[in-house]
Design goal:
The complex is a heterodimer of chains A (234) and B (234).
Chain A (H helix, E strand, L loop, with lengths): L10 H4 L3 E6 L5 H5 L4 H13 L5 E5 L4 E5 L16 H6 L8 E4 L2 H14 L4 E7 H11 L5 E10 L7 H7 L9 H12 L5 H11 L7 H19 L1
Helix pairs in contact in A: 3-5, 5-6, 7-10, 8-9, 8-10, 9-10
Chain B lengths: L1 E2 L19 E4 L2 E4 L9 H5 L7 E2 L8 H7 L21 H4 L6 E8 L6 E2 H11 L4 E2 L25 E2 L2 E8 H15 L5 E9 L6 H8 L7 E5 L8
Antiparallel strand pairs in B: 1-4, 2-3, 5-9, 5-10, 6-8, 7-9
Helix pairs in contact in B: 4-5
Classes of the chains: A alpha+beta (234), B alpha+beta (234).
Chain lengths: 234, 234
């Protein structure tokens, strides 16, 4: 669920992309016990995350990962990638890990943080996004940024990296499970009318097993890439 | 990962799902380049092969390192968490792992999507040894001699992983020197690394951000912010 801070793209595009990660430190017992048992606090957190229109929401049970992504229908399931609904996640009684969510709007993040703050859950929250926007959200919700993780980009043999929109799509999975060739294939299938940009974005997002891919932003990037390639042809 | 040639129908569907382009077709046969394969399991998880021809054999030391560092669904045996690093700044509000005046670095070798050999990981670690404090809970650190940065088991050098994160910290006054050191070694590796810089906030900014800019480094506009909701605060 990490490495969300290396997402590439223009400021305009990144301003539609916020990842909210929740975590309890395994070594800090006091945090695990803060104001009672952890399970009801996690349940409360997921219900807050779920009601502010996330494009992705995920949580873990002892058996599997529950994954919601906007646009992901059960008919698109494949391999180990199985879709859940927001309701499946917020009503699950068997959550083991802590959840995370992706939002496209600053307002959604602001409302979610406001509610989490009021609920005083004691769970550490990290927001990935454009710093200026995230700090603005903090000001509006009465929060003080505690620590930041900044990106100094990629060093070394950078000519090996995919370019432009493909890199933007691939870096929406921090663990690099989305291959550049799959991203190219999805753009090509959109150009040929085999897939819609939304369905192509879901196919990419499915590979990100941590479920932090932003399908709405992904569809926009694919749409833009397809249009740019069509324009070059004509 | 291997392909069972008895079952494979050479449809080539799996090829695009491999993040490191290890699945290839040669002389009419689809096969997996075992040197290139990082055992991330992305191809198998995708469900691309309808014939059940993809097969994950049991891995032994040192090859098992590939899946431990590349497959986000395999808990690392040392940290027992699914991620490849630690909680780093995500729970800094309750752990105080990074205190005021300190700066943390996460050197994400092989990311995004290029992969790395442990020979290159060792090269970077040896350059940093003596200049930083390696994070003891990190899965790369346990493979290294803390004083020299050398791999304890030289057999690991040949192993290739999707990514390996070197986590370390130093004081703010020494941080810029570390960045210059990393800049130099980045020209000597056969891969890429993506660089994270962690700093505790003061007055809605990170003091080390300005130092980096003054020294000619350019942090990206987006990143991760721990918003200080973890309790009890350290």
């Amino acid at each position: 669920m990490t490495h969300t801070h290396h997402r590439r793209g223009s400021r305009e595009s990144l301003s539609t992309d916020y990842v909210l990660l929740a975590m309890i430190d395994p070594a800090v017992e006091e945090q695990q016990k803060y104001r009672g048992a952890l399970a009801p606090r996690v349940k409360k957190l997921l219900s807050i995350l779920g009601r502010h229109d996330p494009v992705s929401l995920a949580a873990r049970t002892p058996q599997n990962r529950l994954r919601y992504m906007k646009g992901w229908e059960p008919s698109m399931d494949s391999g180990i990638h199985q879709s859940s609904t927001v309701n499946d996640i917020v009503t699950c009684e068997d959550i083991e890990g802590i959840g995370h969510a992706v939002y496209t709007s600053k307002q959604s993040v602001e409302k979610a943080l406001q509610e989490i703050r009021e609920a005083d859950l004691g769970i550490s929250i990290v927001v990935s996004g454009v710093f200026e926007e995230v700090f603005d959200i903090c000001r509006r919700t009465g929060l003080t940024p505690h620590t930041v993780n900044m990106s100094l980009e990629t060093w070394g043999k950078t000519d090996l990296l995919p370019k432009g929109s493909v890199l933007e799509l691939c870096t929406m999975c921090g663990h690099a499970m989305i291959s550049a060739r799959l991203a190219e294939t999805m753009i090509s299938q959109v150009i040929r009318g085999i897939k819609t940009p939304e369905a192509a974005a879901v196919e990419l997002g499915k590979q990100c097993t941590c479920n932090i891919f932003n399908t709405a932003r992904g569809a926009e990037i694919i749409k833009g890439a397809a249009a740019a390639r069509e324009a070059t042809k004509s | 990962m291997i392909i069972d040639q008895e079952k494979c129908v050479q449809c080539e569907t799996c090829i695009v799902y491999c993040p490191v382009q290890a699945i290839r077709k040669q002389e009419g046969k689809v096969y997996i380049d075992q040197d290139r394969c990082v055992e991330c399991g992305a191809c198998l998880k995708s469900g691309a092969c309808k014939q059940g021809a993809l097969f994950q054999p049991e891995l032994e030391w040192p090859r098992i390192i590939r899946s431990q560092f590349s497959d986000p669904l395999v808990p690392h045996p040392f940290t027992n968490i699914m991620g490849r690093g630690t909680a780093e700044m995500k729970t800094n509000d309750v752990t105080a792992r990074f205190r005021e005046g300190e700066v943390g670095f996460a050197i994400e070798m092989g990311r995004p999507g290029i992969s790395t050999s442990f020979q290159d990981v060792e090269k970077v670690a040896m350059t940093l040894a003596g200049k930083v404090m390696f994070e003891r809970l990190n899965p790369v650190s346990i493979l290294l001699n803390e004083k020299t940065g050398e791999l304890k088991d030289p057999r690991v050098r040949k192993e290739r992983v999707l990514s390996a994160i070197i986590e370390c910290k130093t004081t703010e006054d020494k941080g810029i020197d570390v960045l210059h050191t990393l800049k130099k070694v980045s020209d000597e590796i056969d891969t890429v690394f993506t660089l994270c810089v962690i700093n505790k906030c003061r007055d809605f900014d990170a003091p080390f951000r300005l130092k980096m800019i003054q020294a000619g480094f350019s942090p990206r506009i987006n990143g991760k912010t721990n918003v200080g909701l973890g309790r009890p605060l350290a």
